[in-house]
Amino acid sequence: MGKITTVEGYIEKHEKFAEALTQLRQIMRSTAMEETLKWGAPVYTVDGKNTVGLGAFKNHFGIWFFNGVFLKDEKNVLEQAQEKTKALRQMRFTKLADIDANLVLAYVKEAIENQKLGKQLKPEKKGRTVEVPELLKAALKQEKNLLQSFNALTPGKQREYCDYITSAKREATKHSRLDKIKPLILQGCGLYDKYKNC
Predict the structure, then answer these.
(1) DSSP readout, 69-109?
(2) What pLDDT does residue 64 have?
(3) What is an example of a Pfam family matching this protein (predicted)?
């Protein structure tokens, strides 16, 4: 079978769990969620936001709650997909008889409500802090307009300048690099923006 382009095609491909996936699909479609196909699998959205997904594997199938971390899970039926997935939770099944339609619908309704409330786990920013070398620090302290221009740069551009000075081995090279970058900083350019006609 080629690329899956429909939910029906996805269910057909996973014939071992076809009846169970069809039942889960009916539960999803009984709500106001919109049915789509993303990453080759059924995904149900609220206001364009991924809310619930269906998935089938070799020995199990299940429901993915994209922001499942916010579900109360009073019945303790949700699992964390992987350690690195912070928000995603899944409800796993191995056979059709495992599905409690009322329980599934209750969890799905809660997920829909959470989505409407905007509950979402924001990814952590992993940006490095900018370590300003002493030579540049001294220049910034002496020249207020240089400091203002440097602070107006993005952290990435600030890092470029700091790395440029730090990577010089000789003190004389560090000083000549500082002289070279001052006009660029004052223009609000990044170190490599000169190649972009800053």
Answers:
(1) GGS--TT--EEES-TT-SS-EEEEESSGGG--HHHHHHHHH
(2) 93
(3) DUF1801
Q: Could you tell me if residue 108 is inside a domain?
A: yes
pTM of the model: 0.61
- Could you read off the pLDDT of 118-141 as tens digits, one per residue? 888 766 655 567 789 999 999 999
pLDDT digits (tens, 9 = 90+) for 38-67: 999 999 999 999 999 999 999 999 999 999
The encoded tokens of residue 114 equal 């959470």
**What pLDDT score was predicted for residue 125?**
58
What pLDDT is attached to residue 131? 87
Structure tokens at 186: 């004052």
Measured CA to CA, the distance from residue 114 to residue 135 in angstroms comes to: 51
Structural domain ending residue among the three candidates 88, 116, 144:
116
24 inside domain: yes
Q: Which domain holds residue 17?
A: 7-116
* Low pLDDT (below 50) residues in the chain: none
